[in-house]
Amino acid sequence: MSEPFDIVIFGGAGDLAYRKIIPALYRSYCEDKLPASSRVIACCRNEDEQLSYLSHVDEALQEHLAEGEYHSDHAMIFAEHVHPVVLDIAESGERWQSMADLLNTYSQRVRVYYLAIPPAIFGVCCQHLSQYNLVDEHSRVVVEKPLGYNAATANAINEEIARYFDESAIYRIDHYLGKETVQNLMALRFTNVIFEQLWDAKSIDHVQISISETVGLEGRAGFYNEAGALRDMVQNHLLQLLCLVAMESPHKMNASSIRAEKVKVLESLRPMSGEEVKRHTVRGQYVAGNHKGKLVPGYLEELDQAHSSTETFVALRAYIDNWRWARVPFYLRTGKRMKHRCAEIVIQYKEVSHRVYGGDTGALAPNRLVIRLQPEESIQLTLMAKDLDTLDMRLQPANLNLNFSDTYKHFKSDAYKRLILDAVSANSSLFIHRDEVAHAWAWIDPIIDAWQNAAQEPHLYRAGTWGPVESDELLAEDGFTWFNAG
Ligand code: BG6
Q1: Global model pTM greater than 0.90
Q2: Is 433 a catalytic residue?
Q3: Does ligand 1 come within 6 angstroms of the Cβ of 302?
Q4: Considering only Cβ atoms within 10 Å of each terminal Cβ, which end of the chain, N or C, has fewer?
Q5: Cα separation values, 45 from 89, 117, 422, Å
Q6: Cα(237) to centroid of ligand 1, in Å?
Q7: Lowest mean pLDDT: which of 68-77, 280-289, 308-317, 352-361?
């Protein structure tokens, strides 16, 4: 077990804290990774919130942990680590002084400041941390998206934090990077000679990266309607996944080498503007439809507005202009209220160069590697093989499956737990560097501008489907189809 640490959750009674951070810390406790005397200091907005905090923590654990994970005796001991305090982040004064006194009871220990608050108050929060001498070589700040609305606002946020924290102490979370299969993607790529040799434009036909969700707005209408799917999902999660698929092998598995390789990919993304955006992107918005036999409302109904041009779905074709990926299309797709919840990377290989089995031996399907990140985490490789049910020479695709929950019985993935513990131990390799944020926005901004200039409304799709037909047409133009889960 490591040394005790303190984690301060700014926005301790917010949705993110209850849904993700608290369950992640509980799991850390259950795995002996929250050493005795470590403190979870949760900032509440007022006394009422503070008084009821521990009972809300308990409810949150019961609600958000997976089946069988909640144990009341563990939850009780975990709660002893939790210290709710009242703090008005924007107001200096007595409350901040009490926070400083509380933290200074252990002045030498690692402190993680988790900013689970709107970016508009990141600056003032960091300023107060600095003013009360709470920033030193043991402290780190963890920041959550949205990191800006475009390149300029992201830069302004990063500048503000950088006034008080060194880049090496800033941990920008993209929770997709904490998913075990995402890390496994790097392990797969960089430790297997078969993939090392077969990972470029010579062998790979195209790549699909798709994150489909079945949920709608989940009470985040205000934020989401401003952001839309491109900013909410593509700028961060999808581009990060694309980087991991496309990057060169880092010289070492450390933060600076990995980040440097990711930045090169982002820099090589072919910029799009005007007509290209029209040709290579599809925007969609869901209308009411059926999900698992239940009628679910459309976006505008959920929003309670007569009109909105915000996209809840994006599909796009991207190119990476470098030697490895020349002319290989990368199709990215994400949407709310789609048919199934699934995050998947599909590496579609080329066909064999010469067909030796002629006659009636069956169609040849190219090899395909499917890395599924959720709901279950698995890797599947489709190979062609002989059909063993017949003496005739018939070929058929066969799947090699690695299902992590079957193989690793105790495997319980929690991206937030992983990332918080990494921040505690100062391992920033799964966090985003400021340069990555800047490059990602530099690619995204012109797409948004082109959409705005064209003033084109999103294509409608029924909730419970795979998105608008235009998304299928995007791939059909190149002779492909989306690999749809389930
Ligand atoms: C968040 C987005 O970053 O990721 C949400 O803001 C989205 O809109 C969520 O629902 C998806 O995360 P996961 O891990 O559930 O796929």
Answers
A1: yes
A2: no
A3: no
A4: C
A5: 9, 12, 28
A6: 9
A7: 352-361
The two tokens of residue 385 are 């093989």
- Annotate 168-196 with b (16+ C-beta within 10 A) or e (fewer): ebbbbbbbbbbbbbbbbbbebeeeeeeee
- 338 burial (CB, 10 Å; 0-12 / 13-18 / 19+) is buried
The answer to whether the beta carbons of residues 274 and 442 sit under 8 Å apart is: no
Asked casually if ipTM beats, i.e. exceeds, 0.95, the reply is yes
Cβ(174) – ligand 1 distance below 6 Å: no
Same domain, 209 and 163: no
Which structural domain range is residue 141 located in?
Answer: 6-173
Domain count, the chain: 2
Q: Best mutation site among 209, 233, 310, 341 for ligand 1, i.e. most ligand atoms within 8 A of its Cβ?
A: 233
Q: Does 101 share its domain with 185?
A: no
DSSP summary character for residue 456: P
**Based on the domain organization, do 124 and 185 belong to the same domain?**
no
Each residue of 147-183: pLDDT tens digit? 889 999 999 999 999 999 999 999 999 999 998 888 8
CA pair distance 7, 42, nearest whole angstrom: 8
List the CATH number of the domain containing 386.
Answer: 3.30.360.10
Is 409 labelled a binding residue?
Answer: no
Residue at a domain's end among 114, 142, 173: 173
